[in-house]
Specification:
This protein is of the alpha+beta class. 33% of the residues lie in helices and 23% in strands. Strands 1-2-3-4-6-5 form a 6-stranded antiparallel β-sheet. The longest helix is centred in the C-terminal third of the chain and has 17 residues, at 95-111. The relative contact order is 0.22. This is MmcQ/YjbR family DNA-binding protein.
Length: 122
């Protein structure tokens, strides 16, 4: 089943908050809900009802494949377009795809942290 915009965003938020050591807030602008692990951004949820998207980190080869495979996945809206993708509601965008994208993005952010700063390292 395809995920509507508000469900897409709710699914992304729930997936992010279920992960260890996640914080979120609005550091850039009131319309961008930003999720971080150890200070590293891994998810941005756009609070604009006219543009219900999420933006996540993604390996460049996976990002290209997603952009080619889904009409409502585009290069990252706010960040480096090779390493970030934006997902909006549309054909093929399922809750599982959204959850996987958020979890993969989190994992990429954690991998780039020094070992001492990774969740569970304390």
């Amino acid at each position: 089943m395809n995920t509507a915009g508000d469900r897409l965003q709710d699914t992304a938020r729930q997936a992010a908050l279920a992960l260890p050591d996640v914080s979120h807030g609005y550091p850039f602008t009131p319309g961008l809900d930003v999720y971080k692990v150890a200070g590293k951004v891994f998810l941005i949820v756009t609070d604009n009802p006219e543009e219900q998207i999420i933006t996540v980190k993604c390996e460049p080869e996976h990002a290209r494949a997603h952009v080619r495979g889904y009409a409502s996945i585009t290069p990252g809206r706010y960040l480096d377009k090779r390493h970030w993708i934006s997902l909006g509601p549309g054909p093929g965008i399922t809750e599982r795809l959204v959850t996987d994208a958020v979890e993969d993005s989190y994992d990429l952010a954690v991998e780039r942290l020094p070992r001492r700063d990774r969740p569970g390292a304390r």
